[in-house]
Every structure is written in C-alpha cells, then in structure tokens.
Amino acid sequence: GRWNKLALLGGIYVFRSLALGWYFMLPPTPATTLLFGAIMGFLWLGVGPLVAGAVAELFGLQWQAMIQGLAFMSHQLGSFLGAYGGGLIYDALGSYNMAWRIGVAVGLAAGIIQVAFALIRPTTSPPPVLRTA
Asked: 33: helix, coil or strand?
C-alpha cells in the first residue's frame, strides 16, 4: 500500500495518548474540552480501516473475518479490563488520576512499540486465497 498501515495505527495510539495526557494536565475549561473532543473525534474511528487493511495484507482475505473478529474481541476485553482496573484504582486511592496516568503510559508504549515493529518489518505479499473447484 501507499502508507504503512501498522505505523499509522501506532501513530494514532500515540496521538490519542498525548491528547489524553494533555487534557488531564490542564484545568477543564469549555475551550480545552471542545478541543479535546475534536481531537478524539478525529482519531476515534481511524483505527478500523487500518486494522482491516493490515489484517488483509498480513493474512490475506481468506482469514479476514476470523482475525478481525479476534482483534475486536481483544479490544472489548481490554476495554473491560481498563474500566474494571480504573474502578479498582479509584476504590484504592479515591481518585482516577493514577488510572488516567496508567492509561496514557500504556497507550504511549503500545503506539511506540507498534510504530517500531512496523518500521523494521519487511514487506511481504499476503498469502494467496485458496479456491476450491
């Protein structure tokens, strides 16, 4: 493809995390909240087409539905663990501040690792789709 989908995906993770960290370091105002909402809205669904394209490139169309379903399932599991973990942190510390910090750190680490692996990965063509007679 024209763009490295995996590197773009990592970049979105990094920018989301930076936006989250920026927003929670500032006092909440209507202007910062609107800007944060605009940034997150811009980055929100950008991962869907990138994941679909990356799955097709890496594994071919034959396994597209299964692998993308597994990716979506793992996303939902991560969402559950993040929300549950945030609740545990709130119960233990009386504040969500540490949960947000951990979320930003995990997002930055995931994005940086994603970009690094995307840039060192050799490009290969996807396996051919097997057709039966």
From this structure: helix
- The number of domains in the chain is 1
* Rounded CA separation 58/100 (Å): 33
65 found inside a domain: yes
- The pLDDT assigned to 61 comes to 92
Q: How far apart are CA 44 and CA 46, in angstroms?
A: 6
Q: Containing domain of residue 23, as a range?
A: 5-120
Taking the C-alpha atoms of residue 35 and residue 23, their distance in angstroms, rounded to an integer, is: 9
d(CA 98, CA 110): 18
Residue at 125 is within a domain: no
Q: What is the mean pLDDT of each run of 10 residues along the chain (133 residues)?
A: 88 96 94 96 90 90 93 94 97 96 96 94 66 67
Token pair of 1 as six digits: 């493809």
Structure pTM?
Answer: 0.81
Rounded Cα–Cα distance for residues 4 and 11 (Å): 11
Q: Please, are residues 129 and 62 in contact by the beta-carbon 8 Å criterion?
A: yes
Q: What local confidence, expressed as pLDDT, does residue 127 receive? A: 62
- CB neighbour list of residue 85: distance below 8 Å, 6 or more residues apart: 99, 102
